[in-house]
């Protein structure tokens, strides 16, 4: 069973020639290999179809810089936030830490977004933030969430048009579990979605099941 | 720029013929299309190289059931836990909930594994478990973690030889953030690793950067 695009020796040789001498015509490649253009036709077709080479009329073949698996990563690099985001769960900045914890359990999410009276994003609360607060000495019923939340401009957010892979990179880099998906308004940013490591994990499962086109 | 393997009309026609009549020889395919075997050679080569068709000597071509994107899913479906796991963080079953929370912060993990005196896995503690306990009425310094942990046999675990995608499916299905990677011993299971949604997110980033072979 052929699972991957495996190139034969001649195809690899052609790739090397085009890398070194491209753009180069089919005839010139054939000359270098002491073969006829007709003999090379299937190999050139395969290399072009598979995306290793590209051809322009009256210019010749050139190397696209892509390896077999780069063609696969191209697919991942086209997937956008809007197709994989979840609904956001928000609390007002005046609610208590205790109420935020209760909301987190009721809604079964790991991150809450905090908004002001204009529904504008002002903060983010993670399970870690709430756990830290809960072992402190303060009374959870009396501290408002805006005391313990991460606040603007330290919030990492994304837009629905952004690439999922950029979000995945931000989640790793900032060591956070979720990003708000926002829309710019005249007051600031409105929260329109949530994207989490769970969404990313589901995406990998969907890719493995060949459910993403 | 050709980013994906795009089939032309004749190649799609060949695929249909092989789906319906395979295994079928190149000559028989050529007959159905009123073309010569030589004319079809590049198309059959492309379809075979790209993994859509497979060929067996003296049998002919048959359909592998794979689409272009199935080649990506094939790649994902070969990746194993051992290449992407993290180090586990364990606590003894006799430590207090308070000490477990402190360990979670010091080690900066979202899940702790609980072991007995033989280093055998007996429980799992998530941030959610600890947060739930922390808003209860009990004194966190006096409750041992074995009162609040998820315990065997309710722990979902995996082996280092398991496929990452099976772990990803379990994380989604069980709505958990991490699994212990275990090794069977004569006492039960020893914890040898940890695999989380963060590991899965990093894997997607690595796939998108073409870092996984």
From TrEMBL, chains A, B:
Highest taxon above the source species: Bacteria
UniProt entry tagged with the keyword Repeat: yes
Question: Where's the CBS domain?
Answer: 84-143, 149-211
Q: Does the keyword Lipoprotein apply?
A: no
Q: What keywords does the record list, in alphabetical order? A: CBS domain, Repeat
Any one Pfam family match given in the protein's UniProt record, by short name: HTH_11
InterPro entries linked to this entry: CBS_dom (IPR000644), CBS_dom_sf (IPR046342), CBS_domain-containing (IPR051462), HTH_11 (IPR013196), UCP026546_HTH-CBS (IPR016842), WH-like_DNA-bd_sf (IPR036388), WH_DNA-bd_sf (IPR036390)
Protein name, please? Transcriptional repressor CcpN
Question: What lineage is this protein's organism placed in?
Answer: Bacteria, Bacillati, Bacillota, Bacilli, Bacillales
């Amino acid at each position: 069973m052929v699972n991957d695009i495996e190139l034969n020796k001649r195809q690899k040789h052609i790739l090397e020639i085009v890398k070194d001498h491209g753009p180069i015509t089919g005839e010139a490649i054939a000359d270098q290999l002491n073969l006829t253009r007709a003999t090379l036709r299937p190999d050139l077709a395969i290399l072009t179809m598979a995306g290793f080479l590209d051809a322009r009329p009256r210019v010749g073949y050139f190397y696209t810089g892509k390896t077999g698996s780069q063609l696969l990563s191209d697919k991942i690099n086209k997937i956008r936030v809007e197709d994989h985001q979840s609904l956001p769960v928000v609390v007002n900045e005046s609610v208590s830490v205790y109420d935020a914890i209760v909301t987190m359990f009721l809604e079964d999410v790991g991150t809450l977004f905090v908004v002001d009276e204009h529904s504008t994003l002002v903060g983010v609360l993670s399970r870690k933030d709430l756990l830290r607060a809960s072992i402190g000495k303060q009374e959870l019923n009396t501290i408002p969430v805006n005391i313990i939340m991460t606040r603007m401009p330290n919030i990492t957010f994304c837009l629905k048009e952004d690439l999922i892979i950029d979000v995945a990179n931000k989640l790793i880099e900032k060591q956070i579990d979720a990003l708000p998906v926002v829309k710019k308004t005249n007051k600031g940013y409105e929260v329109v979605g949530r994207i989490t490591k769970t969404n990313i994990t589901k995406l990998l499962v969907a890719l493995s099941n060949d459910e993403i086109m």
